[in-house]
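Input chain follows. Return structure tokens only.
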Amino acid sequence: MTARHHKTWIGILIALLVVMLALFAYVWQPEIDPVEGPPASAGEEQLLRGRNVAATGNCVVCHTAPGGAPNAGGLAMKTPFGTVYSTNITPHPETGIGSWSFEAFDRSMRRGIARDGTYLYPAFPYTHFTHLTAQDMEALYAYLMSTEPVNSVPPETKLPFPLNIRPLMAGWNLLFLDRDPIEPAAEKSDDWNRGLYLTRAAGHCAACHSPRNALGAEKKGDNFLAGGEAQGWIAPALNEDAPAPVPWSEKALFDYLRHGFVDSHGAAGGPMAPVVREGTSRIPESDTRAMAVYLASLAANQDAGSTRSTSDQTGPAQSVLAQVSTADARLFASACLGCHHAGDGPAVFGERFELRFSTSLYLDDPDNAVRYVLDGVQEPASSSVGYMPGFRHSLNDHQVSGVVNYMRTVLAGQDEWSDLADVVSRIRNEAAGD
């Protein structure tokens, strides 16, 4: 080997070593020393601000297991990659975040790295929380540290190889973690800009309402809020592709987010119900309105031709009477019409609305409609909205398919869903296997 070749190989080895060291420095994150004792007490104004940030982010919804203490973790969140369990975010010094300094808390929220240097999975939406202002982050930390500490150890998240190698998340973050601040639009109103910030940062609406790529990252650009998935439910598009039969107005969005119900769209159900119950109904009314202003603007360019007109449709009661000779219509009349009737009859379990306005009937897939029929609404967005009984144990798969397709074709005037019986069977068996 000539001297020149020898120097070339030495140069290559040095370059590789530099790259490896740089990669190690990027991937390896140090443990941040624990703190002893609670932080200095915050003022009432900062605690109120932190409580509102927590409500906007629905912290208690994801960090509370069924029947568990608030924020003590343990909620099983099913993802395409496996089940992720939420952590204990109460200020318990051993099992929660009581020993976390603000520096450690801020790093976890903005970079997805725990106090001990462990990488977090993006089921925890740090990809959104990274956009919180310094004031909101400090207030959120102060509020969480003021809550009741709970000694609770959630189940350990165990994803299959190679996803169980958490340092790989450093590469994921390099590809998909956008930490740029949210810039206000000068030409927009203060409400619009406030709504932009709330929905994209603490509110993390896109975490459910945007589609994801093969690596689990949210798709952006035209795919922002173009529809996604949450806990087996379809999260409908909120942009100009929104499938709602009546375009969302600012007032309708405000009423829906504030109260969980609006006549022209129906009630919040599935994973959306706790978002309203624990979040948008509890934050300052001005913030709920700002979110409505921003979200309404996204659907403002909705193609009028794609909006399903309901003005020329008869109500459910008249539709049933017109087709009462069919078995599916008779089943709908006996099981559903008592609550979902048109006219001046009583509201049996709460609010009454016509099913022809339900977004679930206009989706490309029947999953949401099937889940409503099988399991009803057991934890509504508010007590005034009311409950809906499920028919899992009283209707067989054929009957559920018949009722769902009746609502889809007659009430919504849409084409029949194909393979509906298979979807009903799948969803019923999913619950049986939980």
